[in-house]
Amino acid sequence: MTYNVAILGASGYTGAELVRLIATHPSLKIVGLSGNSKAGLSMAQVFPHLRHLDLPVLTTIEDMSFDGVDLVFCALPHATSQKVISGLPRHLRIVDLSADFRLRDPAEYEKWYGKPHSAVEMQKEAVYGLTEFYRDEISQALLVAGTGCNAATGQYALRPLIAAGVIDLDNIIIDLKAAVSGAGRALKENLLHAELSEGYHAYAVGGTHRHLGEFDQEFSAVAGRPVHVQFTPHLVPANRGILATVYVQGDVEAIYGALDAAYAEEPFVTVLPKGEAPSTKHIRASNFCHIGVVADRVSGRVMVIAALDNLTKGSSGQALQNANLMLGLPETEGLMLAPVFP
Amino acid sequence: MTYNVAILGASGYTGAELVRLIATHPSLKIVGLSGNSKAGLSMAQVFPHLRHLDLPVLTTIEDMSFDGVDLVFCALPHATSQKVISGLPRHLRIVDLSADFRLRDPAEYEKWYGKPHSAVEMQKEAVYGLTEFYRDEISQALLVAGTGCNAATGQYALRPLIAAGVIDLDNIIIDLKAAVSGAGRALKENLLHAELSEGYHAYAVGGTHRHLGEFDQEFSAVAGRPVHVQFTPHLVPANRGILATVYVQGDVEAIYGALDAAYAEEPFVTVLPKGEAPSTKHIRASNFCHIGVVADRVSGRVMVIAALDNLTKGSSGQALQNANLMLGLPETEGLMLAPVFP
Amino acid sequence: MTYNVAILGASGYTGAELVRLIATHPSLKIVGLSGNSKAGLSMAQVFPHLRHLDLPVLTTIEDMSFDGVDLVFCALPHATSQKVISGLPRHLRIVDLSADFRLRDPAEYEKWYGKPHSAVEMQKEAVYGLTEFYRDEISQALLVAGTGCNAATGQYALRPLIAAGVIDLDNIIIDLKAAVSGAGRALKENLLHAELSEGYHAYAVGGTHRHLGEFDQEFSAVAGRPVHVQFTPHLVPANRGILATVYVQGDVEAIYGALDAAYAEEPFVTVLPKGEAPSTKHIRASNFCHIGVVADRVSGRVMVIAALDNLTKGSSGQALQNANLMLGLPETEGLMLAPVFP
Amino acid sequence: MTYNVAILGASGYTGAELVRLIATHPSLKIVGLSGNSKAGLSMAQVFPHLRHLDLPVLTTIEDMSFDGVDLVFCALPHATSQKVISGLPRHLRIVDLSADFRLRDPAEYEKWYGKPHSAVEMQKEAVYGLTEFYRDEISQALLVAGTGCNAATGQYALRPLIAAGVIDLDNIIIDLKAAVSGAGRALKENLLHAELSEGYHAYAVGGTHRHLGEFDQEFSAVAGRPVHVQFTPHLVPANRGILATVYVQGDVEAIYGALDAAYAEEPFVTVLPKGEAPSTKHIRASNFCHIGVVADRVSGRVMVIAALDNLTKGSSGQALQNANLMLGLPETEGLMLAPVFP
């Protein structure tokens, strides 16, 4: 059986990544693509790498028909997303890739995003989209909120450890290295090739990155008490990939055991042999997440290092994984593409 | 039906690319992998990006069994390849990715590769693997010789023009820009990141690149007279991609028409709208080839620009396309993966 | 003796490169910096890599005093430049890095830049800034028009050959590969890291690049007859560097001899041993230009390959070299910085 | 006055960087260059970017005369360095860039480098080359041991804090991101462009990196008690630069104050305004080190982030700074080159 899907905000990188993945998905058909500033253009004009596909022309959201659509991927900017989604037909399954429905507490949303949420009722309904930990709820959901890409990476490293009670909750540091596509196709000086290539630096320092809202919400929920991690992202000169080096305190055997148990049956999350460190190069353009566990020479200190592709497992691949669940399809369908190396 | 395939020389980039592509091919199963210097290792140890796959352990060629194998991909270095292939069971279908069986004239082989061919009889049998132009022969062949990646790119731009008689055969210049994976996983100083990144240069200048042997053979055969092009490759700081800017003399309408007619029905070769130039970014990690045609301001001068991924359409993707034909499978099976962008 | 200089348009890449070079120039002192959109900021805020220098705060041009200023570098966009320069005090020595005063014929300016020139009288006075070929005029000039960076590269390869009459003037092809800083610090989608890195393509194809105006003017003047070359620029994923592969017809000995003779005494232009090809990596961040000469296997065909750094020899280094001449300083002063490798 | 210097091991990256810097140093003249595997070649053959310089031909160390040489830079691999240096004339001033004389305790050397030291007496004499903290000793020294590049970066961030007693000595984490030239011009698979570009990963994990020997020695000496930091280096796809994100516990004002006081008069080390994070892009190819201090949202947690160029301030620039002191020259002579951006 084939399901019809539409993608709102198809002119950005996560939109293009969705199209790339769906292109070889056996059960999904793209019947609508929106991109307000590019309405009237073909996808081949906006993303020439997709020119071999037979795709609908880009339209405005207003001009899009949702008749016969089974599921909508919403790849719009935050704030815009909540407005658009609250106006969609209520029977539609929706996977939102923006930040708008990730935080269950409206006060937290306002704190991190600087303005009140305009669709508070829907915010309550939304299921947090970290598939491996919300599988049942996602299967039943009408609205799934895709996670932040950095937030996903940190959680893959830490959730099983917090759940198992094997680390000190007050001494968690996430030093994260992110590639540039996570910033989107935005015209900003610091995203220019000449500014970024051959250099790297920390950004959103001091605990100001918005994905901390997700860390706080999720880790506190898992722990049953407030957990506030340190989180410093860095921008590195690469296009795809996130590497989170997470510094924790605990027993390395217990830590390795908790991760190994949590992911033993997972198709996309792999715990490497003890002592091995993952590389973003080894999961690029795929839906896989690699996790390494290394004991430091300082007793009781452990590094958990997680690597994933921000556009795939961190965003559009995750969205498709969730869509598969929502539509009753095999969770891995269309997502077993091998990483691209070199 | 599933066919069993083996890959000889699986520890190089073209070997890894074959595994990547076959990983989601519905009708092929990898039953043997050789890598003499890495025998005994798993593919996950040699190429950690393939660790999610259930693959045979690497063996030596000597230890590999070909019972039940339907087709062998041979991704060995030239000179080695001819020795190995001449020792394989004669009923096996073989796609060779090396240079060993590309040149039909043993004298030409010796001229470009510096020593006599040791399997001259097989060399005669081999079919040149540029799929779109040798489709029927390939379907019937036991031994297909994959083309050089640069040679493929130049031929996609030029073969239809030579065949149609629309360009001056004595004034053809191929200025080619190649990414570094074409040089393989070799430990050479000029392939180091620190040496290559942020710089670029011509190499094999003056008409010394071995792929000229293929150009001479093929273009002369198409033209029915000797054709000797100028060919200058450049190494650019990227991992995948070849861009050939081909300077020809002729009428732009005739040139565009000849290319358009030649590729109108081809699933993998696309002629862009007139005046548009392709980018390697738009075909990366895919089996597609994009061709642009642009008239110069100088009357009667035309640029034909072809872009493809050296590891996919230029090598392992081509090999798989040929294997599909040899096995009676749909030619595009497993090869419709969309390019990876950004 | 120290000369006071001002830089107009100091917030762009060529402005920053001027500051970098002047920072260790023994005879120049920067007394004024303009950057209209950044007026009021320090250079450390606009270019943190310059924070160790004691520099004037950025002002608007209107607020800048030219009292005591000996020479002005004007690194403004074209069209803006002519307006600003025509309003400067007439005794000032000016080195303009824009395109505004490169073309002596106002009709040519209008043809290539799309609108009439607004300072035609000054345009006539301006000396073309290709130092090695206009040394005497530059020494006496009040207004020097810096060349296009691509235009400089092509001319270093070709001027001596045209002057010596050793090549066919009707068969000249310049296939040029340019790094991205040549496009400036502009917020354009195609200059983003995610769009450019790992890919490359031709642009301004078909003889539409504006630097052709310079080629036409200069080559025709040298030849004493109209010369119209083919010129196809490509954008490659690097920040600095231009490599021009120039295809000519003539005798390789005569060609090598003409270049060797022309540059034998030049401090910044080096002809490599015959058959060697230059790399942009070997002149990066320096004022040097390397030229290689290679005979093709096709008789009578020769490649002349020139490499320089677009921001240094192609722009700000050239500007400083000209300023040295205009101020009576040694031509090489402050410019002998060695290339940065790796 | 001009001093004569020789460089042993001039065919590696630190050797080439020394030549680059000395090229515009007003008081030093290179009179000898060794490179055993390249003996007989010119530097232009080994490093074409240096071809504009008039340099001695490379010789073996055995063939080099030290008559009239005032100072030797030794850029040889560790283990080799101690053998060569112990055989040099004893009056020579020597700056060693290898690891051989960094660790004062022979047992520590053996622990980290895997074999006994063969020149223990000289090891005791050697002065540790972190200029800002050993200035007086270096001025008097005959043998200065250049620091590890990572070790330098971490120490710039931490020494003043340990000395001032403003941080918890038992909770120090150095998460370091290093560019690839720090690994030298070695033919290793993981240093290939195709392997490194577009990916990044931790290496030498778990407290196994040899520069920990320097951290232990120096931090313990400053603290007057054993200090053992956590240190995890990462390899990022860039050629030059080290960024150390150091996680400490203490009061941000005290921390900022200690750093500010320590470096207020230093010509090469700059503490950025509070809350600003440095970028490797802003110190590239220069001898500057930028340090940022940021308070985390978690009370009492602070990040100190240090950036420098591994080949310059981390190695050859440091060596030259020390040589200046040893020769009685101004410490900054030849080292005020501005960073290269973009």
From TrEMBL, chains A, B, C, D:
The entry's keywords: Amino-acid biosynthesis, Arginine biosynthesis, Cytoplasm, NADP, Oxidoreductase
Gene name of this polypeptide: argC
Record function comment: Catalyzes the NADPH-dependent reduction of N-acetyl-5-glutamyl phosphate to yield N-acetyl-L-glutamate 5-semialdehyde.
Primary localization: cytoplasm
Organism whose genome encodes this protein: Cognatiyoonia sediminum
Domain Semialdehyde dehydrogenase NAD-binding per the UniProt entry, residue ranges: 4-141
Family assignment from sequence similarity: Belongs to the NAGSA dehydrogenase family. Type 1 subfamily.
Protein name in UniProt: N-acetyl-gamma-glutamyl-phosphate reductase
Compartment annotation: Cytoplasm
PANTHER family from the UniProt entry: N-ACETYL-GAMMA-GLUTAMYL-PHOSPHATE REDUCTASE, CHLOROPLASTIC-RELATED, N-ACETYL-GAMMA-GLUTAMYL-PHOSPHATE REDUCTASE, CHLOROPLASTIC-RELATED-RELATED
Entry GO CC: cytoplasm
Listed NCBIfam families: argC (TIGR01850)
Listed EC numbers: 1.2.1.38
